[in-house]
Write a structure and sequence with these properties.
Blueprint lengths: L18 H21 L17 H23 L8
Helix pairs in contact: 1-2
């Protein structure tokens, strides 16, 4: 073997994401989980009885909005560049 192969420096392993990326990822996951939790319920034990609570504001407007906001935060966290120098 030649000595050339022994002198090659090994690259330092680095994570792709930094702390700031992970904070936004966890915020997004929490919002998505909260949205799905808010969607639950509103059912009825008796299938012959209609429960109008299934169409309330929380399940129709608030919960899907939280899920979409959480997905948007996830995309932002992936695209965020924490190494960018701020002025």
């Amino acid at each position: 073997m030649s000595k050339k192969n022994k002198n090659i420096p090994k690259p330092n392993p680095q994570f792709i994401f930094q702390k700031r990326n992970y904070i936004f990822l966890f915020i997004g996951l929490a919002l998505i989980a909260l949205g799905f939790i808010l969607m639950t319920g509103g059912g009825s034990d008796n299938p012959n009885v209609f429960n109008p609570d299934i169409y309330n504001f929380r399940r129709i407007r608030l919960a899907p909005t939280l899920v979409l906001i959480g997905l948007g935060i996830q995309v932002y966290a992936i695209l965020l560049n924490p190494n960018k120098k701020q002025k």
